[in-house]
Amino acid sequence: GEYRMGATETFDDLNMQFVWNFDKFRPNSLGQGGTPYAILDAGSFFRAMKNCWDNGCSVSNFAGGALSTDFPKHVIGIRDVHLPDWSLSNSQFGLKLEGDYQGVGFSLNALTYRSQLPSLRAVVDNADNPFTPEIESQSYDYLIAFDMYFPRVNLIGGSLDFYVDDIKSVFRVEAAYTDGEEFANTLRPELYSESDVFRYVIGWDRPTFIPFLNEKRAFLISAQLFGEYLVDHERETVNGIEAGNPNWEINHVGTLLVKGWYQNDRVSPQVIMAHDFKAHASVIAPSIDWLISDNLRLTVGANVKVGDGEQEFDDCRACNPFPPFTGDGEPGDTALRNLAGYEPLGRFRSGPIGMAQAEDEFQITLRYRF
């Protein structure tokens, strides 16, 4: 619903929007093995972990890093997926107040919703110790056996849009604060933790003449800086590896778009660049769009990735869930942590750009409209 108040004594324009989504919950589709642009290859990992729980599997260098370990079914993996029930208590509700004040556009937002991205919780209560003859069917701290949940998240945020005439530029500032989000955490017995998150975006758009490229038509230059801060971040360095939350405590991603037009706007070249600061990874994507006729369009593009590549992180293979069989000391003893890998948690350090370092692409698209 929407309530338009129009101009008031204070604001040039003001309106309020209400959103109530009571549709059946649908999680994000993260793709399967071989699916193009499957972010972080999560689908392959989920399928493999579900197979481990249902049928058993082998894990290399599990206990102390010395030997590969064969696990029977119902020990490690993903046991179950808890989709929110289709009920009014699981519906999603949001409010948005937006308006204009002396040329400055603004909005205030509030939303409560179910995360469409899954959270893995090591709270399985019927796992078995494979190193004993008995079937215990109980829970074990720091065991990589998970149930998948979709937690409720509460969000508040706002935005500002304004034009600075002296430099012919439009600026955008957006910010959001959430609570309820869950992240992997190898320092916790349940292998996850909740953290408030503060995210923000600063954007700048400007039409700019570049005479040596085009004297008659301005180029669009658009830059954005995305920031993320995990308020309740936890991390330790033990035995030379990182353990805790694999996500960076504070990270930024910068983007830049330069777009031009030629031949009465029928030919439009552009280049998009993005850089992940903490992952030390970048992508450069040039392309050109040519409207050959009213019916025929040709687009040629590429993207090239550069950077440090994949990064490792503690994956809890050395978390010692079955002492003394998997190591001396107590479960989760950080002194035993000596194993890290690219899969699965190293991917959160590298990010989508860092994990795609070997996936440069070249594309040609020809469209004909009847």
Automatic annotation (TrEMBL):
InterPro entries: DUF1302
Alphabetical list of Pfam families matching this protein: DUF1302
Annotated protein name in UniProt: DUF1302 domain-containing protein
